[in-house]
Amino acid sequence: MSSTYIDPTADVSPDASIGAGCLIWNWTKVRESARIGEGVSIGQSCYIDHGVVIGDRCKIQNSVSVYHGVTIGNKVFIGPSVTFTNDRYPHAAAPRSRTWSTFVGDNVSIGANATIVCGVEIGEQAMVGAGSVVVEDVPPRTLVVGNPARILRLLGDEELEGTTGDG
Description:
The chain is built from one helix and 22 strands. By secondary structure, the protein is an all-beta fold.
């Protein structure tokens, strides 16, 4: 595996764990206790909050926000400007009362500008269409689209070929 590259403009906490072969591009912030697996590419202007877990061989495009409480599996694609939330009842002046966890399974693909509302699980090999707002769990091997995101259809083997490393 190639060596890790961290752009000089990136702000990566010394308390973060960065796997071998990662690419962390310009103006990205990775906070303390974040764990990033091997071979992960994180585009420019991303925010990876404290305690976030990202599996191996993920590709995170530009301007993605991943907040505390999010766990991302292996070989996940996250399109540009995707946002993960972590508070269902945010207030500017009130202290946070609870962080809601979100889990993204292996081999998931999330399209550009999608919003993943906290407290959901996105099953393995699922796909989230661009611009979708995910407010409830997404079953494995399904395509969801819209606001709120709804199941459009199940995904066939030919659509998933190559996502697990088997094709």
